Amino acid sequence: MMQSSSVIICLAYILGLLFTAVPWGGIWVLVLGILAAVLFRAIYIGLRKFAQKREKSITKGKAGANVTLTTPDPRVWLIAGLVGLLATLYFQLRVPQPGEKDISQFISSEDNSNQERLVIVRGEVASTPRLTRSQRGQFWLEATQLDEVKNDKGPASLPKGVTGKLYVTVPILQATGLYPSQEIAVTGMLYKPKAASNPGAFDFQKYLKQEGTFAGLIGKQINFIDEEKKWGWWQVRETIIRSQVRWLGVPEGLLVSAMVLGSKAVDLPYDIRDLFVKVGLAHALAASGFQTSLILGVILQLTKREKKATQIILGVLGLITFLFLAAFQAAVVRAVIMGFAALVGLALERKVQQLGSLLLAATLLLLFNPLWIWDLGFQLSFLATLALIVTATPITQRLDWIPPAIASLISVPLAATIWTVPLLLQIFSVVAVYSVPLSIITTLLISIVSIGSMISSLVSLIVPDLGSTLASFLYYPTHWLIQLVDFSASLPGSSVAVGSISTEQMVVIYGLIISTCMVRWWQQRWWFAGLIAIVLVIIPVWHSANSLLLITLLATDKEPVLVIQDKGQVTLINSGDEGTGRFTILPFLQQQGVNKIDWAVSSKFLANESDAWLEILESLPINNFYAYASQLGNNIETQAIQEKLQKRQGIYQPLSLGQTVNNGSTTAQFVNDQLPILRLQIFGQNWLLIGSVKSQQIEELIRTGGLSSPEVLWCPSESLQDLVLALKPQVAIANRSVGITSANNLHNKTLSALSKGKTKLFFTGSDGAIQWTPDGDFETFIQVTENKSSSF
């Protein structure tokens, strides 16, 4: 009774935290608790009456015992409802908010515009520096003082005492040699992080808020205040990493270190990290349950002849050491708590209930930090462990026709995949097709590398040279593992975008998974549950692909980027500058379930030195590629694009002035060889994309008939007012190259000048991506997102 009551209350607490994503979530949990109490009270009374009627033929004590054992007290459900309500309130109390002296409070509107204001921030380094994708050093800084650098506008203000954590990026050489607890002064520019401006894009503002950070600093120079090194676990981690990299090199040495310390504690190259994520082996880089089980297993095996107290003490020390080495990651803490539960079972000579220990570990973690409920690492770790407990064994039993060792190799990755795929689909919208067979093939290599990494790590702390020697024996297993992952990623269809599933779809799919674990009827028809789950994902994607008519103008810094979806046919116009493909275009296309681009038009609209076409071609094939001939200045890049297209059987065609590209719903034509002007007709609507032009050029173009009034105009912000007054479009969209603050000022001026006109204005800097459908109005991504989350 006590056990079932504890389970119900723990589940209610977790459910309450999950319901923070629902308006009035806590009230709903309380209502569910009240309804459950009423229902189970009715069941309890009914069973009592049934038992009393059978008193003449069945022993009274026996009937009463059955009722007591199988029916939770209704009061437990009321308590659970209250716990769920309190959980939502507790979550809101723990959501990070900037304090009165938080450094983000001292950032003016000028700091987020193009006007640079240099400051000096003093504080303590809170993390080991890492390399970003843009090849800059990044670390966290606990700020203590803010100084303004003297400028020409007047004397600098007095130093201010501040608090708060900063996300700092500096040139890579400036970050070299930094270590945690070091006091430094960073000269640079403060900024407030921005929310995602495009569908599917990374939300930097949300990420920093989860870390309790509300500001960033683009550093230019670091001055050291205190160079005295203070001991910390970071030194132990560095000793291990240096020892393993010494003979293994990069990336093999870093991958070996990540196997034992986790990728968050090791600065693993992004290309290796992306490869493992793409093929569905991200769990191999996460320190969690596998390493914990390995540590306990080795310790208990080596000390099996010792007293039980000695085994437990050494086990506890091993788990605590691993916890500190892995830098207190949520998944590691969860695994360590479950390890402690196993040691308690050993001490009491009782079999540990794995499901109960998992639930206890999750509840304790979420009591310590309720915000972890939305941490992806915690969610995946919990689901994967749950899969091993409740699903792996039934799968193994159904595979009794093959040897047990092989059946176990299949059941473990298959169970983990079943439980984690729905969550991954909602977040990343991509399925790693070969993840299960690849996990089976690489299990032996991952086990060898993990065990060897742990042994060499322990030896490295005592004799670094000997640790390096031992690690060198792991070169070939690690190298073969990387080659297998790379080969899998290069296979056709290795990852398939299916589009982002809704929360409702995900809940129904998890309901089916839970039903096949708990309900006998569904257990016998597991194939039917799987079929329903697949249909729930495939049918909406198929329907959307064959019926969707949508134009999306993505929010980019300079060049206009349009994605046109016409009943499964996808047209991409322009790719933006370097990085836009990886961080803006591809995430959007993945969210939309797009796996190929039918038509692509490259104009190099603002003569970018480099664009993102190669980034896109790395992930998606393009069937027909058109490039404006007068802009093909970079022969090396053009040749690289042509080679990529040929490998994927795409067609490359140069496009001359006045030549028309027509793919049915869209017509594109370059109409001026001196100025960047692209005329489009999309779903019968006229669009005009105009680059930076001067007032005199606009007048000349209109006078000579080079420009006609479009329904939709895109142009840089600095040309907006002149073009709107001259062309009078129905809708005008300006890019965000001049910054949000300046764009808003321009917006007000233009509205004042066009108070009698009917032009509707949008700014991608403040509105985000702009979307339009033939039967609807223009919608802004940021406004729609705010409306969806306003009630949360």
UniProtKB/TrEMBL annotation:
Residues 260-522 form the ComEC/Rec2-related protein domain. One of its GO terms (cellular component) is plasma membrane. Keywords: Cell membrane, Membrane, Transmembrane, Transmembrane helix. It is a multi-pass membrane protein. It holds the Pfam family Competence. The chain crosses the membrane at residues 7-24, 30-47, 76-93, 281-302, 309-325, 331-348, 355-372, 378-395, 402-421, 427-451, 458-476, 496-514, 526-545. It is found in: Cell membrane. It comes from the Bacteria. Residues 24-224 form the DUF4131 domain. Coiled coil: none annotated. InterPro entries: ComEC_N, Competence_DNA_uptake, DUF4131, RibonucZ/Hydroxyglut_hydro. The keyword Membrane applies. Its main location: membrane. Gene3D superfamilies: Ribonuclease Z/Hydroxyacylglutathione hydrolase-like. NCBIfam families: ComEC_N-term (TIGR00360). This is ComEC/Rec2-related protein. It comes from Nostoc azollae (strain 0708) (Anabaena azollae (strain 0708)).
